[in-house]
# Entry
Amino acid sequence: DTEVTQTPKHLVMGMTNKKSLKCEQHMGHRAMYWYKQKAKKPPELMFVYSYEKLSINESVPSRFSPECPNSSLLNLHLHALQPEDSALYLCASSQARGGNTDTQYFGPGTRLTVL
Amino acid sequence: KNEVEQSPQNLTAQEGEFITINCSYSVGISALHWLQQHPGGGIVSLFMLSSGKKKHGRLIATINIQEKHSSLHITASHPRDSAVYICAFYSGGSNYKLTFGKGTLLTVNP
# Structure
């Protein structure tokens, strides 16, 4: 199984809502990532969890709150978002074996629209 | 100066044509990744290259570490190859943070 799954596929929320994005992998990978991607731009890294610990936070606003409940699951909790946060949110995972050669496996993404 | 440059930005081809997409970078790297993203979709990792050449079906990727240059070739292109192709690598000693090229939008017409 080389699949990373993400739910939901689409999400529309108001600026006062609280919602969560979910990501799951069963490849035994120990690094998991959240990316934000705007149209016609490459992905921007938001967070990295390595061995269930937050390893990288790319100065993301606190209205985005990541959570890694176990080695297979990654959540992104959303609260009080702004319309400019509308984007494709991608999850990825990798083995975390080091050596700058890990292949990242990406999920299909959640298309988020903030009204 | 950008660490990575991809060319061309946009490429339109007729079905059956041979396609080449280039990626040049300015820093030392251990490996380079080629990724594919269909419109509105997730990203698929095509290749991870440290040296030489790799082939998978109609796709061929080459890298010259000394010249800091990689190419992705598609033989006998097909409309289903229409996608954005992105080169990426880990830089700055990070095992996790990829530097992405801006991508090449390929459109293959039937």
Summary: Chain B has a mean pLDDT of 93. The longest strand of chain B covers residues 83-90. Chain B has no helices and eleven strands. The radius of gyration of chain B is 13 Å.
